Amino acid sequence: MSERILTGIKPTGQLTLGNYIAVLKNLRSMMDRGECFIFIADLHALTLPIDPEVLRQNSIDLAAFYLAAGLDPNRSALFLQSSVSAHAELNAIMQNFLYMGELSRMTQFKDKSAKMKESAIGLGLFAYPVLMACDIILYDATIVPVGEDQVQHVELTRDLVNRINNRYGDILTMPKAELRKVGKRIMSLSDPTVKMSKSDPKGDIFLKDEPAVIRKKIMSAVTDSGSEVKFDPENKPGISNLLTIYSAMKDISIEEAEERFKESRYGDFKKAVADAVIEELEPFQARYKEIVANKSYEKALRDGAEKASAIANKTLKRVQKAVGLLQE
Ligand code: ATP
Ligand code: MG
Question: 147: CA distance to ligand 1 center in Å?
């Protein structure tokens, strides 16, 4: 059986190089491996306060970025999460099968709510993993390519699938998180001990940054004491992060990248990293601009929502029936 692959990004802010390496760069090979459902997680974007106009604009941007990265709407389904109502409907059922205790152990919830007053934390932020489990389950996804930060949520989805299948018979497909070998966690350029993240944009490389800005950010990235270009995340987090970025851009192993720069000084190494990122992003940005201008994302999203709904509604029906909801 060919694989069913599900992947999504939240339109919460400007996309970063972390998102590119985790998701966008792999779209072409994903489509070769199986049937892909690729979505814009706009409902998830509402879990933290966001301006409506910004959300709309980010959603368009994200659709255009997916297409610029090589997503072929004829071979896969590209859609807005909110256009497929089965996500919200399945969520209403599944929220009864995941428990407060396990949800409060999710590190993403802990991280994101840490700086907030309790009275300002929405229920949606806490319940985020329930909806994410539904996103995965609806398409009978077998593979969910993610960065390291999302592995815990996919594990929780697996627990849920087991729970439902034990109780109601084998009605759901078991998904599996898949991590890239290189680049599962791209770190901030200004603080290589924290993840590069679009909702906390310090030290990010944005996919819309001009080449000159990208170069400047990389040349001024925080590095470590010493002068050797060596992969050692504990003692050399800055250099290790740049090595990871370089390896991901060039599709080579970390060892191979280390070997290339073993005689180099930090400055020359950083210049090579900047060249590699710019070489990859410049043509990508040109395609993105063209897609935004010709609005080809509109038809792709419409067709994608139709394709996705057909599959999602079948799963939803199966679950509704199993739990005892009367279906005409
Ligand atoms: P937010 O701050 O809103 O959570 P984000 O940058 O973490 O934004 P998400 O929409 O949460 O982006 O995640 C989209 C995908 O990008 C996920 O697969 C996630 O694992 C991956 N990802 C996000 N940040 C990184 C990173 N720094 N390194 C590698 N993968 C990442
Ligand atoms: Mg995130």
Answer: 7
Does any ligand 1 atom lie closer than 6 A to the CB of residue 147?
yes
Closest listed ligand to the CA of 200: 1
Query: In the chain, which residue ranges form alpha helices assigned H by DSSP?
Result: 17-22, 27-33, 42-45, 52-68, 86-94, 100-104, 107-114, 123-138, 151-168, 211-219, 237-250, 254-260, 266-294, 297-323
Question: pLDDT tens across 26-77, in order?
Answer: 999 999 999 999 999 999 999 999 999 999 999 999 999 999 999 999 999 9
The closest-lying atom of ligand 1 relative to the alpha carbon of residue 147 is 20
pLDDT of 20 > 90? The answer is: yes
Mean model confidence pLDDT for the chain: 95
List, by residue number, the catalytic residues: 112, 195, 198
Region for 183 from its dihedrals, namely left if φ exceeds 0, alpha if ψ lies in -120 to 50, beta otherwise: left
d(CA 246, CA 250): 6
pLDDT tens digits, one per residue of 87-99: 999 999 999 999 9
Beta bridge partners of 7: 38
Q: Please, how many CA atoms are within 13 Å of residue 113, restricted to the half-sphere of its CB? A: 21
**Which domains does the chain show, CATH number per domain?**
3-183+295-323 (3.40.50.620), 211-290 (1.10.240.10)
Supply the pLDDT for residue 213: 95
pTM of the shown model: 0.93
Q: Calculate the CA dihedral of residues 149, 196, 8, 273 and round it to 10 degrees.
A: -120
Interstrand relation of 3-9 and 76-80 (parallel, antiparallel or unpaired): unpaired
Query: What CA–CA distance (Å, rounded) separates 308 from 313?
Result: 8
Spatial contact of 205 and 189, defined as CB atoms under 8 Å apart: yes
CB of 132 sitting under 6 A from ligand 1: no
C-beta separation of 95 from 327 below 8 A: no
